[in-house]
Specification:
Elements: E1 2-6, H1 13-24, E2 28-30, H2 31-40, H3 44-53, H4 61-72, E3 79-82, H5 88-97, E4 102-107, H6 110-118, E5 120-123, E6 129-131, E7 146-147, H7 154-168, H8 171-177, E8 181-185, H9 190-206
Parallel strand pairs: 1-3, 1-4, 2-3, 4-8
Antiparallel strand pairs: 5-6, 5-7
Helix pairs in contact: 1-9, 2-3, 6-7
This protein binds adenosine-5'-triphosphate (ATP) and magnesium ion.
């Protein structure tokens, strides 16, 4: 299966991706995580990406295409793509590389996004997400340190939401036309949202 996880920042893509990837045995490709790793390692891609991420903007399409091609190279059979595509140009470029089966569009209102993001901590080692209101962890299960992402503050998240509305949300039209879009209500607990995703994948399988 080739699945795309779509939705605004803080929709829970990363959290749900972990569950989906475990249950269906799919490699999880998070373009945001790849960029953060590059920033950490101070690569050329990281140096470019940092300037955009810090301001809540999207990294340039050509940089993202390079990232995608590298990541997809080992996943010919199936994958779970989290955070890509985020522009129409990226969606069209992806169509040229492979045929996606289903796009899970996790929908959530802006206030819930801000609430989740200002309470978010991430593991600096494995990237797992934690929410201060739900988890009392002081370190990640993997032993890594929990940190607050540079782009996880109210000011930057408002900009990320603005960019989402203008550049990313319109991409749903592209997949609607291809009859690949599945709507997932992103409110509620992690388990509730995962149940909705399993149902959507089951429905897709029967089509
Ligand atoms: P979620 O909380 O739902 O998991 P997220 O807000 O954590 O989503 P990431 O996918 O981690 O978002 O991406 C973080 C940042 O990396 C984005 O705001 C953007 O600047 C950059 N980025 C990631 N993927 C892309 C892409 N496909 N195109 C452009 N920029 C990207
Ligand atoms: Mg994420």
């Amino acid at each position: 299966m080739k699945i795309v996880l779509f939705g605004p920042p803080g929709a829970g893509k990363g959290t749900q991706a972990e569950h989906i990837s475990n249950m269906y045995g799919l490699p999880h490709i998070s373009t945001g995580a790849v960029l953060r790793r590059n920033i950490e390692e101070k690569t050329q891609i990281g140096l470019v990406a940092l300037q955009y991420i810090e301001r809540g903007r999207l990294a340039p399409d050509d940089v993202m295409m390079d990232v995608l091609k590298m990541e997809l190279s080992g996943c010919k059979k199936g994958f779970l793509l989290d955070g890509f595509p985020r522009t129409l140009a990226q969606a069209e470029a992806l169509d040229k590389i492979t045929d996606v089966d289903v796009v899970l569009n996790i929908e959530i209102d802006a206030d819930s996004v801000v609430e989740r993001i200002v309470n978010r901590m991430v593991c600096s080692k494995c990237g797992k997400n934690y929410n201060k209101k739900i988890h009392s962890h002081t370190a990640c299960d993997c032993g890594g340190e929990l940190i607050v992402r540079k782009d996880d503050n109210e000011e930057v998240v408002r900009e990320r939401l603005r960019v989402y509305e203008s550049e990313t949300r319109p991409v749903t039209e592209h997949y609607l036309k291809q009859n690949k879009l599945a709507h997932i209500d992103g409110h509620g607990t992690i388990e509730e949202v995962f149940e909705r995703i399993k149902q959507a994948l089951y429905d897709y399988d029967k089509k």
